[in-house]
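re the bet — no i am not wrong, look at it urself. input seq straight from the record:
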Amino acid sequence: MVDLQSQYAKLQEEIDAAVLEVIRSATFINGPAVREFQANLEQYLGVKHVIPCANGTDALQIALMAAGLEPGDEVIVPAFTYVATAEVIALLGLRPVMVDVDPDTFNVTAELIEQAITPKTKAVVPVNLFGQSCDMEPIVEAARRHNLWVVEDNAQAIGADYTFSDGRRRKTGAIGHIGCTSFYPSKNLGAYGDGGAMYTDDDELAQKLRMVANHGQNKRYYHRLVGVNSRLDSIQAAILNIKLKRLDDYAAARQAAAHYYDNAFAGIEQLQTPKRHERSTHVFHQYTLIVKDGRRDELQAFLSNKGIPTMIYYPVPLYEQEAYRKSMANEMDKLPVTDALCRSVISLPMHTELDEEMLTYISEGVKGFFE
């Protein structure tokens, strides 16, 4: 699904030198590499503050802690997403309210969010799924009307651009109160271990995020808040600093691969290729098809026999996960779009090293199933 070895081979000399520099300096925690990466990511995203942390799940948890939410407060999340989005809500004693998603983009919408708002709702976590932005302008406006925090889960869409109705463009994750991302190795901007970050334009909020991530202190041994210990180490920062320079090139390679897939599958009625929202670019963390005829699992087995890897993101709705049934604020029947997607989506290999030979073999394999 992801070829990190070939990507590393192209960067080996530069990455090895950067890693060795950190080791020789012995500045493993909060060293110069972390500060340099933070500054470069701020510039790339066009935000005032980036706060690095240990992983994307920590980023979401710290963001909600900094928002000052209280146990029992409700947080609206899409039901079609990775578990981390709901996990941190339950860990903090908050109550996840799970809502359906748009059938074309797989993202939550302002309309679906507004239908779920109650007097207990305090925040919404829109997830920029698979590489493109939610339609954030109406989401932010709805949140403003209802006095809600907006914490963007941008783990899968770093580098994508969102265009507002007045023509302004912003990077995904830089639109709500706090953006959160992951640097898990397979992400579009991936480390060689765990890593994450939060970002915001709010000076006071940035200070609070830094404190929560650092044991609740802004002066050593003086703890003003209950916090956590969540840091991006210097080795990972050094690697990310090198890869950040190439992030737009990586996005272009993924977009070219997606375009190839689109053309290859254009005549197959049983497949729905990924839809692009008109206001967002798509950086294709995943290339996810909908199999319309109920034969998704057959297709996956067929491709596996040909040595073509696939993944199902995601096979089970969050509201059907045993761990979250008791913590959910809303009792619900099946959400029709989420339920249908979990039974019909399949993701093909998508990474920066796909060449025409690979793309041809994969797409011919898919087409062969429907012939």
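see?? Residues 53 and 231 are 4 Å apart (CA to CA). told u. also The mean pLDDT is 96. so pay up
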